[in-house]
Design brief:
Shape: globular
Strand content: 25-35%
Radius of gyration: 22 Å
Structural class: alpha+beta
Number of helices: 7
Distance between the termini: 28 Å
């Protein structure tokens, strides 16, 4: 049994699709709220503007209440603004595979683990892991040196990370109605009950492994496989002092000529539920990272000036683009020697990070193309990122900008 191959297979299955992204032209500097310009040309009629963090709440509400010709906000949209903002970097943990016994005991009882042959594996790329894959007993477990954790119980083993066609998506962090009910293993379960159950399980079995973050259930995708078995894909996001880690965008760095270096990677928790009150599988995907604060941010670019600038930057939409969600997020850019075979999630590597305004654009079910290849897609979203410190813009309106 090659545990390392199983680890990589699982990680690949839950990772978002790598995408290519366009970059808009933006001012190299920004204007602060005192009115003095810093290198912005006279031709700019909409300028990015810095304001005090303490003024962000009111600024966001002003921006949300305005009418725009190119954009509209989803009804009931809400933006959470922390009282303080930090400039941060992050670092992948190392040596974490040695915790495997304690990790496995969280998810399996002694009887379940008694007959499992747990083996250590060191891959050619230096990835070290402990794990087991029991096809007869339909159980799987793996812990990697970078903090990667994954397990599967019998209920989820056959459909591990591939529960079938997408039926419907629910956003627990918005105003979605979570009262819809589906049958899981013969029992009716509402989306709200699934959210509560997954959050309770997480709080009791996983939360203390990442004490730096507040982790909460964000999205539920209802799926149905070829045998008619329904399941829930449940995603949870991580927040550091009120700001989410990027769980949306994995993309290549298009400034690198060979196109093999990652610019952004993601962090989130992914669970599956096939039975009421049971998490059948879970993975933290890209492992564990630790935050490292580099100072407090007193000013960032205002959301109102972001919207004014985007209004002038994007002028070719046939109809208004609906913004489904707005957040402040930390991007994650891995610092690794990809040419020498290093991986963007290797144990011990660092991540530079920028605070960005994230504007999410949902791809609704009736907007999806017809075809079998689209039927198993997850939460497909387009996005615009505006760096809250320097004004750089990343965006992607392509359908494949995200496949969670």
């Amino acid at each position: 049994m090659n545990t390392n191959k199983n680890l990589k297979r699982a990680a690949a299955l839950i990772a978002a699709a790598v995408i290519l992204t366009g970059c808009a032209s933006v001012p190299s500097d920004v204007k602060d709220n005192k009115g003095d310009t810093k290198g912005v040309s006279d031709s700019e009629t909409a300028e990015l503007e810095q304001i005090a963090v303490s003024d962000l709440e009111g600024d966001v509400q002003t921006a949300l209440s305005k009418e725009y010709s190119q954009f509209a906000f989803a009804e009931g949209i809400k933006v959470d603004i922390p009282d303080e903002l930090q400039k941060c970097t992050f670092k992948q943990v190392s040596g974490y595979e040695e915790n495997y016994a304690g990790i496995f005991s969280r998810f399996f009882d002694k009887a379940e683990l008694a007959g499992e042959e747990i083996s250590k594996d060191t891959g050619a790329d230096g990835m070290v892991s402990y794990g087991f894959s029991d096809e007869l007993g339909k159980k799987y477990g793996c812990v990697g040196n970078n903090g990667f954790i994954c397990f599967a119980k019998p209920s989820a083993y056959d459909d591990l990370f591939s529960g079938g066609k997408r039926v419907k998506i629910y956003h627990a962090d918005r105003n979605d109605d979570l009262s819809d009910s589906y049958q899981l293993d013969g029992q009716d379960v509402t989306i709200g009950e699934a959210v509560d159950s997954a959050q309770k399980w997480h709080n009791e079995n996983y939360a203390d492994l990442e004490p730096d973050y507040d982790i909460s259930v964000k999205t539920v995708i209802v799926r149905e496989n070829d045998m008619g078995v329904k399941s829930f894909d449940i995603m949870a996001e991580k927040k550091y002092k009120g700001v989410a880690l990027d769980d949306l965008v994995q993309k290549l760095d298009d400034t690198v000529s060979d196109g093999q270096k990652m610019k952004y990677v993601t962090q989130s928790i992914y669970m599956q539920m096939f039975k009421a009150d049971e998490i059948g599988s879970m993975t933290n995907g890209n492992g564990l990272i630790k935050p490292q604060e580099e100072g407090k941010l007193d000013k960032i670019i205002s959301f109102s000036s972001v919207m004014n600038y985007l209004e002038q930057s994007f002028t070719d939409f046939e109809t208004k683009v609906e913004i489904s969600d707005v957040n402040l997020k930390y991007t994650l850019t891995p610092d690794y020697d990809y040419k020498d075979g290093q991986n963007c999630y290797d144990a011990g590597i660092g991540f530079s990070s920028h605070l960005v305004w994230e504007l999410v654009i949902d791809v609704k079910a009736d907007e999806m193309p017809v075809g079998e290849e689209y039927e198993t897609m997850g939460n497909v979203q387009k996005y615009i990122y505006v760096d809250a410190e320097n004004g750089d813009i990343d965006y992607d309106f392509d359908l494949f900008s995200l496949i969670q």
